[in-house]
Amino acid sequence: MVREVSESCMDSLLTEIVSSYCNRFYATKPELAARRIEAIGYQVGHQLTERYTIERPRFNDHLEAIKFICKDFWFELFKKQIDNLKTNHRGTFVLQDNKFRWLSRVSVDPSVEISGAAQEPSVMSENKSAQATGLHLYFPCGIIRGALSTLGIPCAVTADISNLPACSFVIRIKV
Amino acid sequence: MIVCIAVVGHQNNPLYIQSFTEADDALKLHHIVHCSLDVVDERVNNPKKSGPMLNETFLGLLYPTENYKVYGYLTNTKVKFILVTTDLDVRDADVRNFFRRFHSAYLDAVSNPFHVPGKKITSKTFAERVSNIVKSVSFHTTG
């Protein structure tokens, strides 16, 4: 039986999680809000990994586990694989998704478009929208961290959004 | 007959341990489970011995004792399942099948959003499902 999740519901839920945590529960402490959202993602990643790895042999090394995240895990989540995987072979991996689904509908502040005329405000609003977008990435970062920790690889995950809707996740494995 | 089944977390922390005997020998069974953890570690860290079943989740017979046989299973997420049975004439396929069913029961239990990862499994539904699986499985070989 194939179970599916409505994408629009997922989008709305994520938006709502972010806005609840950032504007209501922890309005005064944004770092705490980020940590909480990341923790939710962690648990989701943990439980999903538990489920998606049921039929596979164990992984030999870190790269195999990361490949699993890039291919099968990402496919289960987003119906596509990670577009680009880079590594320095010393515990840092960069996973790039050229069209990250959860950001594909994020609009950029219109005032950013009319840049040039007034340099100062556009830079500010760009920062602001980047910040708001960044808040939506704590959840997927948590998912990746949860997935890898469950596979026995403690790590730290950060996201980078320099050119939307492409998005890259940087995984640093703790040794 | 299956006398004991245990789930052990990746730091060798017990997540679930249940014996199915009338007699008061829980302590002895727990001791057997405890001993088997070293065997699991040994199997996993020296995979050459296990040959073709490299990295398979099912670890096979861990060790036989006079009265019991101990089987192990290690999930991709480093959670160990230990099975202690009194049947001495068991087919691997049956044990494999048992573990597969047990794994999916475990999976549903830990997917519960109210379950805290790394803590003991207290779900009654899980306990019930496990005892159903245990009851329905018999390792008697045909013939």
Can you walk me through this structure?
Chain A: Pfam families: TRAPP. Chain A: One of its GO terms (cellular component) is TRAPP complex. Chain A: Belongs to the TRAPP small subunits family. BET3 subfamily. Chain A: InterPro entries: NO_sig/Golgi_transp_ligand-bd, TRAPP_component, TRAPPC6/Trs33. Chain A: This is Trafficking protein particle complex subunit 6B. The complex is a heterodimer of chains A (175) and B (143). The longest helix of chain A has 23 residues. A 4-stranded antiparallel sheet of chain A has the order 1-2-4-3, covered by helices on one side. Chain A has a single domain, classed as Muramoyl-pentapeptide Carboxypeptidase, domain 2 (2-Layer Sandwich), CATH 3.30.1380. With 175 residues, chain A is an alpha+beta fold. In chain A, helix 1 packs antiparallel against helix 2 and helix 2 packs across helix 6. Chain A is globular. The N and C termini of chain A lie far apart (40 Å). Chain B has 143 residues and is of the alpha+beta class. Chain B has 3 helices and 5 strands, in the order ββαβββαα. In chain B, helix 2 packs antiparallel against helix 3. Chain B is globular. Chain B starts with a strand and ends in a 7-residue tail after the last helix. The model of chain B has no long low-confidence stretch (mean pLDDT 82). The chains are: A alpha+beta (175), B alpha+beta (143). At the A-B interface, helix 2 of A face helix 2 of B.
